[in-house]
Amino acid sequence: MRFEHKAGEKLFVDFSGDTPAYVDRETGELISVELFVAVIGASSRTYALAVASQQIPDWTKALNY
Asked: H-helix or E-strand containing 47?
């Protein structure tokens, strides 16, 4: 179903369900991160940022980045 959104009306934000990971180049350790995703309703432009956790400091960091 297609939804129509007025420009500037809505921003959808949440953490993705999957937990991606990356390899630390210095230690070789696999580090899991949370993926913050934001989508502008009218244009479907997407923004994503990997943060350490879903805790409030990381949530506000992702929103203000």
From this structure: strand 46-51
Q: Output the CA–CA distances (angstroms, integers) from residue 64 to 18, 27, 31, 54, 61, in the order listed.
A: 22, 30, 23, 15, 5
- Give the pair of three-digit tokens for residue 15: 């953490």
Residue 1 has pLDDT above 80, yes or no: no
Q: What is the mean pLDDT of the chain?
A: 92
Map residue 22 onto helix, strand or coil.
strand
Q: What pTM does this model have?
A: 0.80
Q: Is the dihedral of CA 50, 54, 56, 60 positive or negative?
A: positive
Question: If you ran DSSP here, which 8-state letter would residue 10 be given?
Answer: -
Domain ranges, ordered by start, for the chain: 11-64
DSSP SS3 for 60: helix
